[in-house]
């Protein structure tokens, strides 16, 4: 039976001062009566919640939905302008925050209303509302868009003759592991499920093909919980939110609850728009247009079910979109029909929204996105048989699943000074026998630390070793070398490996020997454990950089 050894170590928390302000971008409608010219930018004070006066970042026709690339360098916008949908790519000027046009590509559908970026940063995924279709557009290394490579056309209708005469794809989101794409289609009351191939830039029908909503519900926007165990969709027409259990193995969604977004005594006209989950995973928010409110719910951490907290209505008018800043302190609400964005402070115990008094004028605002400098993880590996490389790829996949984290994969010999200096965290992988040869490993460390002159003091560190043959070792060798390299105090982040035969759990420095007969190859279970390692180190690095 094969044994794989994991030693997971991480730096203790480093005192890092969080940014005092955060750039924020607003998408708008540029219709003749709106007064808007395109995408606007502002900054959010993370202490007071005050927004600076918005200024024009780029002139573009009706950028009704925008998204920022995980690397923080590019912004993408869909123009909801009719039958010939357009997606525009911009480079973000790091100094000024202004947007510089890169190029445009057709969305291959009418009325594009939503764009997202897959977790590898390779593709822009677009939902075309007017034609009821979804498109995948590859992203080039310079941030510009290639020609579309993936496309699906929905079919069908539902019971609301005015709004559901045909398909209307309203949003597209990828799964935490980047294997699936979910398209909420208001016109056919389904969340369509597709297999995503990020390398090829394609989405293809999957089994199960969809998660079905109640007739007439009108699913609009969709969100995964931070832990990836559950997902939620807001239903525009029924004014409800549906909670699902998510099965990562099959991609299936199983309904567990549907709740209303409205008070019992409300009899007016209303449609829902946006749904957001707090970064802690403890609270969920949904917007009502008509009742003009943000509905707030607590999320049960064991069941995923929702419990109503409150409706916040202060200075809210047609909240087509809203967003929660990455720190979880503030909620910004875009008032489409009041030409304003208002800021609420979030109660960290209850999730309730408290008005801050901060409000800025933005003509017809309909989308809000924050620009946060991404946390960068470098996964460096040394592999002779290919096993460690496979595990390293899984570690990088896991790190890339953490929102706001970008992981790069390099062989040890190919890791440049620029790679090492840019990284906020480093995960080092090698065969077990190699980890226990201090001379060879020390050569690598010395090259990075002394010859390249890289300062590792403020970086998060992790390590893993794969056992590909008869092995016995001392995990403290890897630990001590990384201690030396990073010049900081380490803590054990927790073991990931359990010996199924003996029940022993490895992970303590100095107690990580494995014995065996050992079979070649890497199992899916072992790769899952490697992804978990990547997620844990990436999360620690993110919490260290953005406390």
CATH superfamily of the domain at 9-14 and 373-545: Flavodoxin domain
Q: Spatial order of the strands in the main sheet? A: 4-3-2-29
Q: How much strand?
A: 35-45%
Main sheet overview: 4 strands, antiparallel
What structural category arises from helix and sheet content?
Answer: mainly beta
Q: Number of DSSP strands?
A: 36
Give the overall shape: globular
CATH topology of the domain at 9-14 and 373-545: Rossmann fold
Task: Please report the distance between the alpha carbons of the first and last residues.
Answer: 42 Å
The DSSP helix count reads: 6
User: How helical, in percent, are the residues?
Assistant: 10-25%
CATH architecture of the domain at 9-14 and 373-545: 3-Layer(aba) Sandwich
Q: What's the alpha carbon Rg, rounded to whole Å?
A: 24 Å
Q: Given this structure, which CATH class of the domain at 9-14 and 373-545 is correct?
A: Alpha Beta
Which regions contain 5 or more consecutive residues with pLDDT less than 50? Answer: 1-19, 468-500, 502-519
The residue-averaged pLDDT reads 84
How does this model look, in words?
This protein has 547 residues and is mostly beta strands. Among the domains are: 9-14 and 373-545, Flavodoxin domain (Rossmann fold); 60-217 and 236-251, YVTN repeat-like/Quinoprotein amine dehydrogenase (Methylamine Dehydrogenase, Chain H). The chain is built from 6 helices and 36 strands. The strands form 10 sheets. A 4-stranded antiparallel sheet has the order 4-3-2-29, with no helix packed on it. Strands 5-6-7-8 form a 4-stranded antiparallel sheet, with no helix packed on it. A 4-stranded antiparallel sheet has the order 9-10-11-12, with no helix packed on it. β17 and β18 form a beta hairpin. α1 (387-400) crosses α6 and α4 (438-451) runs parallel beside α5 (476-486). The protein starts with 8 loop residues before the first strand and ends with a helix. 53% of the residues are buried. Mean pLDDT is 84; it is low at 1-19, 468-500 and 502-519.
């Amino acid at each position: 039976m094969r044994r794989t050894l994991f030693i997971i170590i991480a730096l203790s928390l480093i005192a890092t001062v969080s940014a005092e302000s955060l750039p924020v971008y607003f998408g708008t409608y540029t219709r003749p009566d709106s007064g808007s010219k395109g995408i606007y930018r502002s900054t959010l004070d993370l202490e007071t919640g005050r927004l600076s006066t918005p200024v024009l970042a780029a002139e573009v026709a009706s950028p009704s939905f925008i998204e920022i690339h995980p690397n923080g360098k590019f912004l993408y916008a869909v123009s909801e302008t009719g039958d010939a949908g357009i997606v525009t790519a911009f480079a973000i000027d790091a100094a000024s925050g202004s947007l510089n046009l890169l190029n445009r590509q057709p969305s291959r559908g009418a009325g594009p209303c939503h764009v997202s970026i897959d977790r590898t940063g390779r593709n822009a995924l677009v939902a075309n509302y007017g034609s009821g279709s979804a498109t995948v557009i590859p992203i080039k290394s310079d941030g510009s868009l290639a020609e579309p490579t993936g496309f699906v056309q929905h079919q069908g209708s539902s019971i609301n003759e005015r709004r559901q005469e045909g398909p209307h794809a309203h949003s597209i989101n990828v799964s935490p592991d980047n294997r699936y794409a979910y398209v909420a289609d208001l016109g056919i009351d389904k969340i369509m499920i597709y297999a995503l191939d990020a390398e090829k830039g394609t989405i293809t029908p999957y089994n199960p093909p969809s998660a079905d909503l109640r007739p007439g519900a009108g699913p609009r926007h969709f969100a995964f919980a931070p832990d990836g165990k559950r997902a939620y969709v807001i239903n525009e027409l029924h004014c409800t939110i549906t909670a699902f259990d998510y099965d990562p193995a099959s991609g299936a969604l199983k309904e567990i609850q549907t709740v209303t977004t409205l008070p019992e005594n409300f009899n007016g006209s209303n449609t829902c728009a946006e749904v957001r989950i707090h970064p802690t995973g403890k609270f969920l928010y949904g917007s009502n247009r008509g009742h003009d409110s943000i509905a707030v719910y607590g999320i049960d951490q064991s069941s995923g079910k929702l419990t109503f907290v409150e409706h916040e209505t202060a200075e809210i008018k047609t909240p087509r979109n809203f967003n929660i800043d990455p720190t979880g302190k503030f909620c910004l609400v875009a008032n489409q029909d009041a030409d304003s964005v208002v800021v609420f402070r979030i109660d960290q115990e209850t999730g309730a929204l408290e008005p801050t008094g901060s409000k800025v004028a933005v003509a017809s605002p309909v989308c809000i996105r924050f620009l946060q400098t991404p946390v960068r993880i470098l996964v460096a590996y040394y592999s002779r048989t290919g096993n460690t490389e496979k595990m390293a790829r899984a570690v990088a996949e896991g790190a890339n699943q953490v929102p706001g984290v970008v992981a790069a994969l390099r062989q040890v010999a190919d890791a440049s000074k620029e790679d090492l200096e840019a990284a906020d965290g480093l995960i080092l992988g090698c065969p077990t026998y190699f980890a226990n040869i201090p001379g060879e490993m020390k050569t690598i460390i010395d090259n990075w630390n002394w010859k390249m002159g890289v300062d590792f003091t403020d970086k998060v560190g992790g390590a893993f070793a794969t056992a590909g043959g008869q092995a016995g070792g001392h995990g403290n060798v890897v630990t001590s070398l990384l201690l030396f390299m990073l010049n900081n105090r380490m803590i054990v982040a927790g073991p990931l490996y359990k010996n199924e035969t003996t029940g022993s759990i490895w992970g303590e420095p100095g107690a990580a020997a494995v014995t065996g007969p050992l079979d070649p190859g890497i199992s899916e279970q072992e790769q899952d454990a490697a992804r978990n390692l990547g997620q844990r180190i990436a999360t620690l690095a993110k919490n260290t950089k953005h406390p």
